[in-house]
Design brief:
Blueprint lengths: L46 E6 L3 E10 L3 E11 L7 H11 L5 E7 L3 E6 L25
Length: about 140
C-alpha cells in the first residue's frame, strides 16, 4: 500500500529522522528528562535520523528522550568509514529503499549528537540544486 504519510523501515513499519540538538533540562527521580518542552519529545515514536559529530549516522524510531541520551528502536547504525557512502548518500538510499535494521535498540549519547530530524522532514536535492521532492510529499512506501 502506498501512502504519502512518510518513510518506512525495510521489513515493515515507519521510521523517522531527527536533525536538531535538544536543550538540557532537569531530571526526575528516575533520572529521565523532566523538561516537557524538549523539542525532541514531539518526535517520540517517529522515525528519525540522528547525525553525530563523527562518522556515525543513526536511523530509527525515537523511543525515549533523557537528559543524557536518546533511545532508538528498530535502528540502523551506519559508520561512514565502512563502505563508500557519505552520510547524505546513505540517508538518500535509506529514504528510497527503507532503513536496514541492524539493532533492536541503541542508546545515543547527547554529547555526540549534532542534529536530529524526522525522516519525513528530509528533503533531497539533485546536483542542480533543485528539490527532488516537493515539500510535504512522501518519498517512501508504507508497509
Amino acid at each position: 500500500m502506498t501512502s504519502s504519510a512518510g518513510p518506512r523501515l525495510r521489513g515493515g513499519g515507519e521510521r523517522v529522522l531527527i536533525l536538531q540538538a535538544a536543550p538540557r533540562g532537569g531530571k526526575g527521580d528516575d533520572g529521565k528528562r523532566m523538561n516537557q518542552i524538549d523539542p525532541l519529545n514531539a518526535f517520540l515514536t517517529e522515525l528519525v535520523a540522528v547525525d553525530t559529530d563523527g562518522p556515525i549516522l543513526y536511523l530509527g524510531r525515537l523511543a525515549e528522550v533523557t537528559d543524557s541520551a536518546l533511545v532508538l528502536t528498530e535502528a540502523d547504525v551506519h559508520d561512514c568509514r565502512e563502505g563508500h557512502a557519505s552520510k547524505e548518500a546513505y540517508l538518500a538510499e535509506a529514504l528510497e529503499q527503507g532503513v536496514t535494521v541492524n539493532r533492536r535498540k541503541v542508546v545515543v549519547l547527547r554529547r555526540v549528537i549534532m542534529s536530529v530530524s524526522r525522516l519525513a522532514d528530509v528533503v533531497l536535492e539533485d546536483s542542480t540544486g533543485a528539490d527532488d521532492l516537493p515539500e510535504g510529499r512522501a518519498f517512501l512506501e508504507e508497509d
